[in-house]
């Protein structure tokens, strides 16, 4: 006989942000137009209003968590919380720290780290890497000198080597995403599969690649079931609003004008420096097979903070197996734990849920990984 044990680690508020994400919505077209600064302020305002409506949670220790792009918005929200507490804005949030997974933090450095990362994992030869590093002067993201033909040629060679590698998890197949459900923020229409055909049987017709992306289609069917929408208290007024996994109008592309979301804060390292002067704990983790925001870039900005190393690089374990590697830093009353998830992609919990659960549980309990 097998039994399962439920372990409550934390109460979780899951926020779809900004408007247009998930089931979140705005009542005017203009309200969908936002940026990092506005998004962080909206997130902070939401937390304060939520605690006003749910005062029984006011004394609970509060940790903010997020992944990927929350590496930009998250530290900004945390700073607003500390500043709000200091000037007496109510209700006071019992902030204790934050968790960031596979975070975008320094846009230029994080993207530049892809080249040394793919070399380190054996996708580039030593010769290609050395030539590219020399001719591009370590700058692969913003090419200032477009007349630098040697750099351009080297980057073309690099692209031939890694162009068909799956960036979120380099060991998984790269798939055609043309069947992925996409969302038109203003038109409220699906650009791909027709809703009428979206049932559990028709989904099997598009699952022909054997890829992780295939399974994302099931989330569309689940989230748009009437009983699910009722359980989530989605107002009937918004019945015509369909849930989709990716709202592309909120993406930012370096070479394109933004549609509704502007990436106006390119670097949040300064926010971490600000938080380092508070009584605060931080957990930053990365899947070590993620090429979107490689762990090398994350380690680079952490090292730039020049914190005291409390525990140097060492393995951490789940079920007596190496789950990843970790380091711990401190600065006065602030401490930061960095951890990798062995075999994890972008983002780590999707690929390594058991290991991530144990990592967060230990960290919240203030136990060493």
UniProtKB/TrEMBL annotation:
GO biological process, one term: proteolysis
Gene Ontology molecular functions: acyltransferase activity, transferring groups other than amino-acyl groups; serine-type carboxypeptidase activity
Protein's UniProt name: Carboxypeptidase
SUPFAM superfamilies per UniProt: alpha/beta-Hydrolases
Source taxonomy: Eukaryota, Viridiplantae, Streptophyta, Embryophyta, Tracheophyta
Family (UniProt): Belongs to the peptidase S10 family.
Signal peptide positions on this chain: none
Species of the source: Lactuca sativa (Garden lettuce)
Pfam families in UniProt: Peptidase_S10 (PF00450)
